[in-house]
């Protein structure tokens, strides 16, 4: 017994020693050690600043200037390598301590992640048409509007921009789908926040942009998605050491083109040849180039952006501060803007819960040009023989001529300023649940505030109090009377808020060869628009008061002056939605998707406040089939088809459908004139949103292991229930006009993208890509059984001697932007311009509208963008060219300058020297001034050099030079062929040609250790 106990005792000790030994061995085996190596791309170039982390821990570092990394890990750990624009790669640590890791660009495959509504998807799993542009591939330059960054980059996205830094670009995706001004732009979604203002973002903050083109992709956003959806993803913090970086540039802009107007000698010679001369009031012996006097010789722009980010596997953060300043090429105009962003993401509950918070605030200050288009017109027509100023320093003016103003005086004696603040805050929570479920909550708050001021000093109110204002088409020119004296000032302040709460449940589960991703959710949005006040005043003691102190005016001493309280109407809009989407994937070969959204909105009629927006799509990844396994030509091949319905509720307020009473005149009662109140707007309880149904068929492909890739899409887009204003019987309706759903519009087209990597060497790398798009637009109908419109004449430039003349037409069977005017037939024997009448006979006295012909269209037949990127060792070079083909432009500006018989009163172009003063029709709007608007523009070229080593404390340093708008090849005779192609009056150049510039930038990007 004792022996047994002794044996047990020693056996226990032996067992304990063995266990301790094993523990030491286990502890030794689990001890962290230094794991190092280098991270390279598929061309053996080092990737700088990538995140290197140990999965499931807080250990994280970043790669250095040569792509090197060093991190503590143990055998069996999984190291994650991630970098924006590249596939995430996992490395299992073995007994080795040094590794060479290569990761591929995500854009080179169909497996990269695409942001879609309420979730993400791999490109291989898509059934719809979505274009993705990475942040580094966006347009570079002195860009004040993010829309300009996409210009020419996305097939089917037609973007036209002004040279004015304070004007947003017009954005049309796959053709116009509405006849309402201001309702054609796509819906922007920033980091999941629907309807966010894109101006709140600095270009350096954008990681990628996904453009949802067809209704199947966009229908998940329901009644706001008919014009497409643009999803913007901003840069986030990544795990690793703190990343501190700075980017900045300095730019100089010059006018790229001017009208060739006559100088003093040319004008006098022309008048003498035609037995005419200047009046003494106009011939002051000067030789003034008014375009040079109105425009800056050099406009300066600069941008500074500083950002830092970092964190651990469970907490990441990012922050940035951006300052942008751009002078307009027109004197007194400019824009400066501050943007600050901060974001934090935190994981909790064993990484089951992820919380996110971001806050962005932008503060902008815009100095505008009062009566901008009038100034642009006057700088062309004002006589060169007149000086800018008199000998005593006062501004010269010949006030005996009507509609004739010194443009420099107009600039200097008025001021118009708009300050606006844009705040966007968002909170997100994602909870991972059992069985493949996850639950998301997102809340956001947007606040947009404007403070506007305008002041027209005593010179303005005494000389220019009846200004001929020429707004952008389709608005018509008018005479604006500045009632007041000793200056007129106006000031207003408004704010708009937008509150959104969205919650959705996602189920992502795989069953063998089958996988399902399903989303069901709810959205609530409350918007308040136009909450504010306006006031005006006049009769100020001095001009220096400006618009800041309206109380210093004495308006009550001016008999006819009335305080302007503004025209903004307070509005509150409520939108409630339910949505669902299901994706089914079998063996990654066959993909099906279906979605539906139910929207309820307070802006439409009480009988039509709810709508349903379904979509369905399918895709076949042919490259996954067995019969494709033994071939080496095609890397990927995919066919897809989709159909969906989306809506358009943009540009509406809750009062649109209501019966509204207002002042309709006066009546005499008991010796007093009393105000008469009556109906001013009809009620329409059946007004609903426009619906756009889109069929899309496409293919994606790549060949030669991804060296050649592309896509092709064909679409058919039909919009029904077009909203327009119709004449109605006043015996039935209180008012003679009714806003109703009646018409239909069609857009059909195709898009083609081809990307190639012709050279992929160790030192030399070249990628090139071209995109081509064509769209055919047509108004199908403007009538139904109740209401009918045969034709709608639009754009009435109202030039001298052409009262009542219009130049465009909306008519079933024709596209938006159809030019409808006189058909020019050359000149008769007497040198007078003649035209064809309605019967085809020649006449010098045609009748407006009766003798009009369709003579061209403003919409382009093709849009082309071509990108080339070349790198050689540390050098990089890129060239981007853009072409617009087959469109026409109505050059109203040039037509109004074709006045040889009035050259003693207003200047004329050099080309008019060959015109006869006997031609009383020379300026008449006609096909003579409908010009080919096609052009090829070298939009951007950049040369850069990156220092990767040798600077203490600096991870990388890149210096670059960029040139924008180096040249334009075009036959157009105006300032620039890029005329606004948005709205219902595209392609009309009517003194709204804020000059384009040629820009040279010098900048640097630097990141610190």
Molecular structure report:
- The chain has about 1000 residues and is mainly β.
- Among the domains are: about 35-100, Sandwich (Immunoglobulin-like); about 115-240, TonB-dependent receptor, plug domain (Ferric Hydroxamate Uptake Protein, Chain A, domain 1), CATH 2.170.130.10; about 655-685, no CATH class.
- It has nine helices and 52 strands.
- Strand 26 (about 490-510) and strand 27 form a beta hairpin.
- The longest helix is centred in the N-terminal third of the chain and has 28 residues, at about 1-30.
- The model is unreliable at about 1-30 and about 105-110 (pLDDT under 50).
Strands, count: 52
Give me the Rg, rounded. Answer: 33 Å
CATH topology of the domain at 113-241: Ferric Hydroxamate Uptake Protein, Chain A, domain 1
Number of helices: 9
Q: Characterize the overall form.
A: globular
Uncertain runs with pLDDT below 50, 5 residues or more?
1-29, 107-111
Structural class: mainly beta
**Mean residue pLDDT:** 90
The top-level CATH class of the domain at 113-241 is Mainly Beta
First-to-last CA distance: 72 Å
Tell me the CATH superfamily of the domain at 113-241.
TonB-dependent receptor, plug domain
């Amino acid at each position: 017994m004792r022996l047994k106990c002794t044996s047990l005792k020693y056996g226990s000790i032996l067992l304990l020693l063995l266990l301790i030994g094993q523990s030491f061995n286990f502890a030794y085996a689990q001890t962290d050690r230094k794991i190092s190596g280098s991270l390279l791309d598929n061309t053996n170039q080092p990737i700088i600043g990538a995140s290197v982390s140990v999965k499931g821990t807080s250990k994280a570092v970043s790669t250095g200037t040569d792509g090197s990394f060093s991190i503590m890990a143990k055998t069996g750990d999984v190291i994650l390598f991630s970098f924006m624009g590249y596939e995430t790669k996992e490395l299992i640590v073995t007994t080795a301590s040094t590794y060479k890791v290569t990761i591929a660009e995500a854009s080179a495959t169909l497996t990269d992640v695409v942001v879609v509504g309420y979730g993400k998807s791999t490109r291989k799993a898509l059934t719809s048409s979505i274009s993705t542009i990475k942040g580094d591939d966006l347009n570079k330059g002195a860009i004040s509007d993010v829309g300009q960054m996409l210009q020419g980059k996305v097939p089917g996205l037609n973007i036209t921009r002004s040279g004015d830094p304070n004007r947003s670009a017009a954005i049309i995706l796959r053709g116009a789908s509405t006849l309402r001004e201001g309702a054609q732009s796509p819906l922007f979604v920033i980091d999941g926040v629907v309807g966010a203002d894109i101006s709140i973002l600095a270009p350096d903050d954008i990681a990628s942009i996904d453009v949802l083109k067809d209704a199947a992709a966009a229908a998940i956003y329901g009644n706001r998605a008919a014009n497409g959806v643009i999803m913007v993803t901003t840069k986030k913090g990544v795990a690793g050491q703190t990343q501190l970086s700075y980017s900045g540039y300095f730019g100089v802009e010059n006018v790229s083109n001017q009208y060739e107007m006559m100088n003093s000698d040319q004008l006098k010679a022309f008048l003498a040849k035609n037995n005419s001369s200047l009046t003494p009031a106009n011939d002051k012996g000067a030789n003034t180039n008014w375009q040079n006097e109105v425009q800056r010789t050099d406009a300066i722009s600069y941008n500074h952006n500083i950002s830092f980010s970092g964190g651990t596997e469970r907490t990441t953060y990012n922050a940035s501060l951006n300052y942008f300043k751009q002078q307009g090429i027109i004197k007194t105009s400019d824009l400066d803007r501050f943007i600050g962003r901060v974001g934090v993401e935190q994981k909790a509950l064993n990484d089951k819960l992820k919380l996110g918070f971001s806050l962005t605030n932008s503060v902008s200050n815009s100095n505008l040009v009062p009566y901008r288009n009038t100034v642009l017109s006057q700088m062309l027509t004002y006589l060169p023989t007149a000086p800018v100023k008199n000998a005593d320093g006062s501004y010269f003016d010949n006030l005996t001529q009507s509609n004739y103003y010194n443009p420099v005086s107009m600039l200097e004696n008025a001021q118009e300023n708009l300050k606006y603040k844009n705040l966007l805050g968002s909170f997100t929570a994602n909870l991972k649940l059992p069985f493949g479920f996850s639950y998301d909550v997102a809340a956001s708050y947007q606040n947009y505030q404007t403070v506007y001021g305008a002041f027209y000093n005593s010179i303005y109110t005494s000389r220019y109090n009846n200004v001929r204002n020429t707004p952008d088409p389709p608005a018509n020119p008018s005479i604006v009377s500045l009632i007041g004296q000793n200056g007129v000032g106006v000031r207003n302040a408004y704010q708009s808020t937008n509150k959104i709460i969205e919650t959705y449940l996602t189920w992502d589960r795989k069953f063998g060869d089958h996988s399902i991703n399903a989303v069901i959710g709810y959205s609530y949005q409350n918007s308040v628009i136009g909450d504010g006040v306006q006031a005006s005043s006049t009769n100020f003691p001095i001009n220096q008061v400006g618009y800041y102190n309206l109380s210093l005016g004495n308006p009550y001493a001016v008999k006819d002056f009335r305080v302007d309280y503004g025209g903004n109407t307070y509005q509150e809009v409520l939108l409630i939605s339910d949505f669902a989407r299901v994706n089914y994937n079998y063996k990654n070969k066959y993909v099906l998707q279906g979605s539906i959204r139910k929207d309820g909105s307070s802006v439409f009629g009480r009988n039509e406040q709810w709508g349903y927006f379904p979509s369905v799509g399918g895709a076949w990844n042919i490259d996954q089939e067995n019969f494709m396994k033994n071939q080496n030509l095609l890397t990927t091949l995919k066919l897809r088809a989709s159909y969906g319905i989306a809506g358009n509720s943009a540009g509406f307020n809750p009062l649109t459908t209501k019966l509204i009473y207002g002042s309709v005149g006066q009546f005499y009662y008991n010796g007093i004139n009393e105000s008469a109140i009556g109906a001013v707007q009809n009620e329409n309880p059946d007004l609903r949103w426009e619906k756009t149904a889109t069929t899309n068929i496409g293919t994606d492909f790549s060949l030669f292991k991804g060296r050649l890739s592309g896509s092709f899409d064909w679409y058919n887009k039909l919009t029904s229930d077009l909203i327009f204003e119709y004449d109605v019987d006043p015996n039935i309706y209180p008012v003679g006009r009714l806003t109703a759903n009646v018409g239909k519009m069609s857009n059909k087209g195709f898009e083609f993208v081809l990307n190639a990597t012709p050279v992929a060497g160790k030192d030399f790398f070249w990628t090139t890509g071209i995109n081509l798009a064509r769209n055919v637009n047509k108004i199908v109908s403007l009538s139904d059984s109740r209401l009918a419109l045969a034709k709608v004449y639009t754009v009435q430039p109202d030039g001298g001697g052409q009262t009542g003349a219009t130049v465009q037409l909306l008519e079933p069977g024709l596209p938006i932007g159809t030019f409808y005017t006189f058909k020019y037939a050359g000149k008769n024997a007497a040198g007078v311009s003649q035209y064809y009448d309605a019967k085809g006979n020649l006449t010098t006295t045609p009748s407006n509208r009766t003798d009009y012909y369709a003579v061209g269209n403003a919409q382009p037949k093709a849009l082309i963008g071509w990108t080339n990127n070349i790198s050689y060792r540390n050098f990089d070079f890129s060239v981007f060219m853009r072409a617009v083909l087959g469109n026409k432009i109505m050059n109203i500006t040039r037509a109004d300058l074709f006045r040889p018989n009035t050259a003693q009163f207003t200047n004329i172009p050099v080309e008019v020297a060959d015109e006869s003063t006997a031609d009383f029709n020379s300026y008449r709007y006609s096909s003579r001034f409908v010009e080919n608007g096609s052009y090829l523009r070298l939009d951007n070229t950049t040369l850069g050099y990156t220092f990767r080593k040798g600077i203490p404390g600096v991870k990388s340093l890149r210096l670059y030079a960029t040139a924008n708008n180096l040249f334009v090849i075009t036959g157009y005779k105006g300032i620039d062929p890029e005329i606004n192609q948005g709205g219902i009056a595209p392609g009309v150049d009517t003194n709204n040609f804020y000059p384009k510039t040629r820009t040279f930038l010098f900048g640097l990007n630097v990141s610190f250790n």
